[in-house]
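DATA SHEET
Item: assembly model
Revision: 1
Owner: S.N.
Input lines:
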Amino acid sequence: MTKKNSVLSLENVYKIYQMDGVSVKALNGVSLTIKEGEFVSVVGPSGSGKSTLMHIIGCLDIPTSGKVTLEHHQVSKLTERELAQIRNKKIGFVFQTFNLLARTSALENVSLPLVYNGTAESNIQEKAKEALEKVDLGDRLEHHPNQLSGGQQQRVAIARALVTDPAIILADEPTGNLDSKSGVEIMEIFKKLHQHGKTIVVVTHDQNIASQAQRIIKLKDGQITE
Amino acid sequence: MPIKQLIKVALKALQTNKSRSLLTALGVIIGVASVILLISVGSGLKGYVTNQMQDMGSNLIMVMPGDIDLDKIDPDAGGSGAMGSAFSSMSSSKLELDDIKEIEKSIPQIEDAAAMVMASSSVKYKGESKIAQVIGTTENYVNIRKSDFEKGSFFTKSEVNGGRKVAVLGYKVAEDLFGEENPLGEKVKLGEYRYQIIGVMEEKGGQGSMSPDDKIFVPITTAQRQFDQDNISLIFTQVRSSDEVSLTVPLVEEVLKRRLDEEDFTVLDQKEILSTVSNILDTLTIALGGIAAISLLVGGIGIMNIMLVSVTERTHEIGLRKALGATPEVILTQFLIEAIFLSVGGGITGIIIGSGGALLLSKFMPTTVTLWSVMLAFFVSATVGIVFGIAPARKASQLSPIEALRYE
């Protein structure tokens, strides 16, 4: 692969937390590259630093040292405000607990990222509807989260992640709160998105889920083991 | 992010918590409504009293028996001391009709002077009967007090000099005794004596003892004889022009001092009374408004409290919004807009309720909704929203998205 196709690269990234005066190295010199169209899983036991890695990939946090590049943006040098804008345009989050706004329709939930990037009001509805149709929820536009099953809620969340056409879809234990049937459905959607050329990163502790990805990154004690 | 979208997001957030939003705004609603209502009562009272005073006529100087010091009428003493002595000294007055003649004659600035004696008496006509205040006065009373007539006219100088038993009824007295009937030429019984009615005054409005509608006017000579009052309760004099009022007051005092042994009278000019009364009522209005303003402040603290609780309760939501691309400024603005909407919305509702309440109350007492009280209440409530919204909004904007997302 040529360098042009790299969506995200981490070079020698450290993240060190101070806890009660003791330095904890959550990430201990991580380097990795994720290329356009890749389906990658990050797997590791709890305490391996996978949450911290996810925060850095998701531009929710910046490293203590090292270089993070997301589509030509030097993420490690950005302010909180710029990080928020990068998250909006380049990252599509899918969370374990779905994180939909309660008492708010599926359509409005999916619209939210578009509202924050100043998309023209006339386009918002149309784009949100399109995204929901992609996850087969075209008939649930006005449903509130409490009227949807867990699997359906997670599909709304995926639609929300898709709606801004981000560089990376970043999923954190996306099947963790779902029954196995719904879990399979969600993974099928990710596979389908991957076939359509989306770049997907799934963070999980579940080997079965991880093994469905194209490439597995194993993390232990803040370092990549393979 | 355009402000229009931000407002939409904030409104949506308020809408998803309808009852909480309503209860929070209630504090401001009550505060603003009570500020407007209480100030309207104070202003209404002031307007009413000022009107009554101006209705008395213009450029007036009044002479009352007894030594009254207006400065001593302060709210702390209840005003009873000075006012009480004023009323009790009316009966022991040493002022006489000749004093008025002397004032009129020797002071060129005085255009007209009328004397008054007052008494209470029963009035009877056929079956109807009531108690009314009888005012014995001279013919020029109507010139000074600028009175107009519904029917007939006032008594003349010769009727005063002759001590004739003629009476002019106040509007309400005529209405109570005669209803639709024409009272002119009819006779009413004042106490033991019959008086012929020669006029009915035009309606002046107002309530209680201040209103001339509930009075009966008879020649002063007749009244002095019937009610056995040699002395005079009150003198009204009218000065040629308003510039000469303050200059004339000491002249009147001088004339009376020469004629009476002791200084047992008080000369008041209308403006002085008006300014004293309106000072008292202004203080009252400010005090009422101040009390109401405290409830507005409490309403503001209520907003801050709820917004702070709301930030904690919605930590997870804030984390999500940040993950989806809301910058700290966007979160700050959203929460600030929510607080402002609560306070301004509450303010506008309060203005409507307060003004409506004042309108309802105006059926029972004078109220005036003043523009300044509405403006004040509105700007205070908006400021309350901003001031008390800033702390929670800052707290929300500074939350770390990672911590916030982890918060359950």
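QC remark: The CA atoms of residues 115 and 121 of chain A lie 8 Å apart.
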